């Protein structure tokens, strides 16, 4: 059996470690995954959970539970290499320790284990052999390698449900900086943007689109991607053939599929019925190859390198529904969508009703839209808005950004560069059009709301202009006696467009309810994209440090569940997201009293020496992927045991 079904009442369930099926649950509106489908397990680790504490926040959505049941995914055993000795790592020379057999490959001792289901942590040991967890709690025998986890939390590896590493993984097999944030699995192919399927003649256009809409350096893409594939299955084969540090799951991307079928017309018009059927065939092929679902974008902010809407924005609602309905043929897979604006929930609801598959949309919706989602949830559909736990802040330069791309006037800048771009930004008629777009009626969502006091200068190359670093545009305009828009463009031009600006769309004040509400999924890291604009790839360490330790928003066990078993169950990631005997050994060890992200740094380590924002973290002691220690005390070990996670 495979799929989501409604449970009226009774505790949540998950399978015992030795059975032939993986039973993992998403429950919507309740706090934890509890036991009904497995026999009581011995040992101190299996205890009863408490209730969710979410102070001062009301959870509006209906209380429903969903259970996903899927067959175990057969996977080869991962390459395992012992790490170098360190303060917490000690060898054991007593190889066979008992008649039962040889020593375990790796034993984690003395830590507080959080199994990922939402149950409170308990002191227990954990054994790993090969790429599997072989014992949780009880009397664990000696290990060839042992980790002293005293004072540490031991949890399932975190799963990032929204990344854009599709290009970066071609040159960075460690998937930095996610590997430093306790993340062991990433989901790629979001927003409809993938590198496959892709015909050779479309490659340059795809790279130009990613440059504009996802903030990736065109030079880095051209230098770093070795195009050895055309189909979706060939792309996954490329990933299989090159060792990587983390696990990777893929969604089939709408824009890629549309371009593959329609060519240049994908950015010009709606598809014919024949073209829709051809696209369905491509989605079907991707699902057969192991895709975990399908993704699309209708967002007006998503504009390609030629200034035209990305291909998926030209699709009718019916096209989106038809393509997503392919998931129903397989009885698995999830759908992710960036809607036209925060009030647009009709398409996600229609997809959920037509396909019966889980749906995630990006952002917290308003009360009216929330009521629609409540009704759909009451009917048994799983629709989870995806939310970020970080303030939504952007850093940008005018010569390499897409901050204003949703504005018709700014799309003119996508067609010029260098001196021609500077001339356009000086043109009074362009400024008039730009001002009208900012101040007048606008159909769609504007990232910038005209609050010039929230737009600040972060860095300047010209030494004379550095005196303005830390000042906002409104204050500088007042001092100069000029219009803020003119000052914004003028001061950027004075620095030859190298000036770095910062803008905060939303602070932390509004985040609490969405983070507590189990009708929302935490994610939206965009890791691998917006490389000089955003640094939300560190959301896991920020969440556990700022929200859990400092603000005590919820118990640590609930926070861990939201980062592990919830995304695993939603995307159908088999045998991961929980610490359970027989599951893959994806484990993170962290210090709850120290875990926190660093401030992002601008580094020039992309192919061709191009720049990106990079964030490290404190408190992550070890990251274990398929039994291999990938990160030890914040540094990569060289072990690359990640796997391509295929739907099955």
CA distance, first residue to last residue: 12 Å
Please identify the oligomeric state.
single chain
The class by helix and strand makeup works out as: alpha/beta
Number of strands: 30
Q: Number of helical segments?
A: 17
Helix-residue proportion:
10-25%
Largest sheet: 10 strands, mixed
Structure write-up:
The chain has 648 residues and is an alpha/beta fold. The protein has a domain of 114 residues. Helices cover 25% and strands 22% of the residues. It is built from 17 helices and 30 strands. The strands form seven sheets. Strands 4, 5, 6, 7, 8, 9, 22, 27, 28 and 29 form a ten-stranded mixed β-sheet that branches. Strands 13-14-15-16-17-21 form a six-stranded parallel β-sheet, with helices on both faces. A four-stranded parallel β-sheet has the order 10-11-12-30. It is globular and about 80 Å long. The termini are close together.
SSE layout and pairing:
Layout: E1 3-7, E2 21-28, E3 64-71, E4 89-91, E5 104-113, E6 122-129, E7 132-136, E8 143-148, E9 153-156, E10 158-160, E11 183-188, H1 203-213, H2 218-224, H3 232-241, E12 247-250, E13 252-253, H4 254-262, H5 273-289, E14 293-297, H6 317-324, H7 326-330, E15 334-338, H8 346-355, E16 359-362, H9 367-378, E17 383-387, E18 392-396, H10 419-426, H11 428-439, E19 455-459, H12 473-480, H13 484-494, E20 500-506, H14 512-516, E21 521-522, H15 539-550, H16 556-563, H17 565-571, E22 587-590, E23 596-597, E24 601-606, E25 610-614, E26 617-618, E27 620-625, E28 628-632, E29 635-636, E30 644-645
Parallel strand pairs: 5-8, 5-9, 10-11, 11-12, 12-30, 13-14, 14-15, 15-16, 16-17, 17-21
Antiparallel strand pairs: 1-3, 2-3, 4-8, 5-6, 6-7, 9-22, 18-20, 19-20, 22-27, 23-26, 24-25, 27-28, 28-29
């Amino acid at each position: 059996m495979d799929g989501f079904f409604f449970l009226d009442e009774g505790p949540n369930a998950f399978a015992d470690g030795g059975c032939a099926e993986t039973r993992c649950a998403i429950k919507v509106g309740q706090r934890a995954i509890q036991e009904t489908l497995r026999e009581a397990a011995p040992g101190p680790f299996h205890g009863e959970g408490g209730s969710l504490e979410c102070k001062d926040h009301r959870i509006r959505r209906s209380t429903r539970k969903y259970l996903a049941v899927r067959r175990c995914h057969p996977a080869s055993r991962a390459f395992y290499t012992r790490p170098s000795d360190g303060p917490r790592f000690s060898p054991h020379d007593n190889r066979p320790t008992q008649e039962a057999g040889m020593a375990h490959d790796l034993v984690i001792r003395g830590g507080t284990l959080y199994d990922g289901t939402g149950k409170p942590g308990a002191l227990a040991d954990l054994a790993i052999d090969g790429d599997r967890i072989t014992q949780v709690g009880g009397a664990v025998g000696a290990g060839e390698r042992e980790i002293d986890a005293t004072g540490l939390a031991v949890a399932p590896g975190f799963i990032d449900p929204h990344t854009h590493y599709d290009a970066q993984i071609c040159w960075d097999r460690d998937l930095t900086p996610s590997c430093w944030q306790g993340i062991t699995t990433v989901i790629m192919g979001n927003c409809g943007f993938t590198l496959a399927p892709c015909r050779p003649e479309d490659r340059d256009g795809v790279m130009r689109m990613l440059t504009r809409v996802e903030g990736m350096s065109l030079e880095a893409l051209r230098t770093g991607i070795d195009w050895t594939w055309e189909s979706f299955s060939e792309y996954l084969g490329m990933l299989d053939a090159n060792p990587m540090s983390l696990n990777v799951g893929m969604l089939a991307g709408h824009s890629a599929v549309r371009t593959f079928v329609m060519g240049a017309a994908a950015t010009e018009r709606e598809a014919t019925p024949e073209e829709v059927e051809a696209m369905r065939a491509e989605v079907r092929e991707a699902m057969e190859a192991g895709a975990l679902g399908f993704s699309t974008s209708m967002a007006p902010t998503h504009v390609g390198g030629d200034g035209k809407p990305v291909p998926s924005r030209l699709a009718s609602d019916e096209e989106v529904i038809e393509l997503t309905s392919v998931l129903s043929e397989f009885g698995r897979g999830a759908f992710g969508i960036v809607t036209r604006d925060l009030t647009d929930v009709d398409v996600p609801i229609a997809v959920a009703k037509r396909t019966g598959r889980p749906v995630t949309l990006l952002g917290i919706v308003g009360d009216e839209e929330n009521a629609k989602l409540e009704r759909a949830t009451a009917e048994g559909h799983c629709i989870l808005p995806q939310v970020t736990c970080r303030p939504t802040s952007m850093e940008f330069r005018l010569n390499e950004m897409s901050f204003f791309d949703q504005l018709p006037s700014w799309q003119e800048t996508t067609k010029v560069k260098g001196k021609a771009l500077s001339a356009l930004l000086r043109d009074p008629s362009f400024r008039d059009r730009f001002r009208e777009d900012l101040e007048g009626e606008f159909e769609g969502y504007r990232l910038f709301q005209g609050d010039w006091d929230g737009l600040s200068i972060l860095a300047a190359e010209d030494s004379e202009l550095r005196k303005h670093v830390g000042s906002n545009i409104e204050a500088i305009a007042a001092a100069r006696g000029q219009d803020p828009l003119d000052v914004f463009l003028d001061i950027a031009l004075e620095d030859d467009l190298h000036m770095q600006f910062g803008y905060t769309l939303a602070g932390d004040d509004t985040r609490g309810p969405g983070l507590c509400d189990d009708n929302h999924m935490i994610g939206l890291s965009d890791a691998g994209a917006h490389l000089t604009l955003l640094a939300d790839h560190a959301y896991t360490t920020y969440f556990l440090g700022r929200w859990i330790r400092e603000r005590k928003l919820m118990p640590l066990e609930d926070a861990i569940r939201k980062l592990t078993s919830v995304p695993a169950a939603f995307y159908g990631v088999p045998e991961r997201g929980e610490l359970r005997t027989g599951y893959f050994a994806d484990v993170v060890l962290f210090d709850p009293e120290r875990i926190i992200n660093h401030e992002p740094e601008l580094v020039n380590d992309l192919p061709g020496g191009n720049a990106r924002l990079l964030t490290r973290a404190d408190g992550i002691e070890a990251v274990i992927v398929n039994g291999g220690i990938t990160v030890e005390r914040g540094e990569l070990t060289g072990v690359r045991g990640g796997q391509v996670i295929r739907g099955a």
